[in-house]
Specification:
This is Chitin synthase export chaperone. With about 350 residues, the protein is mostly helical. The chain is about 55% helix and about 5% strand. The N and C termini lie far apart (about 50 Å).
């Protein structure tokens, strides 16, 4: 068992239970080593840490690529371009996690603190991007427009840059930050990121209850919360017990990574359940979801020479304008290059 006790603003207790990327850089002079962790393997003269977790990271990258492909294929879905930014960020977080946890970038390297800073910055930017996606359904800014897209991009970059600087300043350290007492980094890592996730969940529950007659999307939200919460508990509470029981073959990080992947997949499933594919090509009558419609008059429908005819000629995904979901019951056309 750990000799450390939980303290606000300190990672010592957490790092003594599970190997996080920041653990070698905070706390005592040489960081905090977990009591029990997954055994290493040697591959082509390279020592690979957490090999089982590395496999899950590779699976996560494949699954994320599949989800991104399906999101990109839903040309007229509301918030398509906004939500895809979240999955790109999650993919970057996974890549950084893979490089740091596995030891491909060794902790002894002079670059390790900087890569870890980027990793923590990407994590916070991912949570922030998810939070802003929670507002898309309320149409405060019309989805797919430059205002909606660039507000998410710029603010997410600001969060990324701020947290990256804070992390590197803590690890180096740069006064007034101290790696022996990383309170600011602890607050960002747990409170800021946790608050962003909580607000997103609340927003989506309000959206489903007040906007949709279909309550099935609530199930996706509940499953997503359950997966994420379970993963965090396993990661920070039961990692040592799992490691000892499995004789060092796996630890809590393995199951925590799986749970995080499942929760991200539920974010996709939830978004997919409240959006609909291009109505011009879709078949079916699923109701009570966000739809992108163009209410055309008889003069526009006739002859194929109006907007409908132009839309058919230009097509979707071939360089022509793409319909973007505005307020319910209408569509707006914007340049697909944003």
């Amino acid at each position: 068992m750990s000799d450390y006790s939980f303290q606000f603003g300190k990672f010592d207790y957490i790092c003594s239970n599970v190997m996080l990327t920041l653990c070698p850089l905070v706390g005592p002079k040489d960081g905090v080593e977990p009591v029990c962790y997954s055994r290493n393997v040697r591959l082509v003269d390279t020592l690979i840490f957490q090999p089982s977790t590395l496999i899950i990271h590779l699976i996560a990258l494949i699954m994320t690529a599949i989800m991104i492909y399906h999101i990109r294929s839903k040309y007229t879905a509301v918030g398509r371009k906004e939500i895809i930014m979240f999955f790109y960020l999650y993919m970057l977080v996974t890549i950084m996690d893979l490089l740091l946890i596995s030891g491909i970038i060794p902790t002894a390297s002079n670059l390790y603190p900087y890569f870890t800073g980027v990793h923590l910055g990407l994590i916070s930017a991912t949570f922030w991007c998810l939070l802003l996606n929670g507002f898309v359904g309320f149409q405060f800014a019309e989805d797919g427009t430059p205002l909606s897209l660039w507000s998410i991009r710029i603010s997410s970059f600001v969060v990324f840059a701020a947290v990256t600087f804070l992390s590197i300043a803590t690890f180096t350290p740069i006064s007034p930050f101290d790696n022996g007492n990383p309170v600011a980094l602890w607050i960002v890592f747990f409170i800021f990121n946790g608050a962003a996730l909580l607000i997103y969940v609340i927003l989506q529950i309000v959206l489903v209850v007040n906007t949709l007659d279909d309550r099935w999307p609530l199930g996706d939200i509940i499953f997503g919360i359950a997966f994420f919460a379970t993963g965090q508990v396993i990661l920070y509470v039961f990692s040592v017990q799992i490691c000892n029981f499995a004789k060092h073959y796996i630890d809590g990080l393995f199951f925590g990574t799986i749970a995080t992947l499942l929760s991200v997949m539920m974010v996709y499933k939830y978004w997919d359940s409240i959006t609909k594919e291009d109505l011009e090509f879709s078949v079916g009558s699923k109701q009570n979801v966000w739809e992108v419609k163009e209410l055309l008059g008889e003069d526009e429908m006739g002859g194929g020479g109006g907007m409908y005819g132009q839309q058919q000629n230009q097509g979707h995904g071939y360089g022509g304008p793409s319909p973007a979901g505005g307020p319910y019951g209408q569509a707006n056309y914007y340049n697909d290059g944003y």
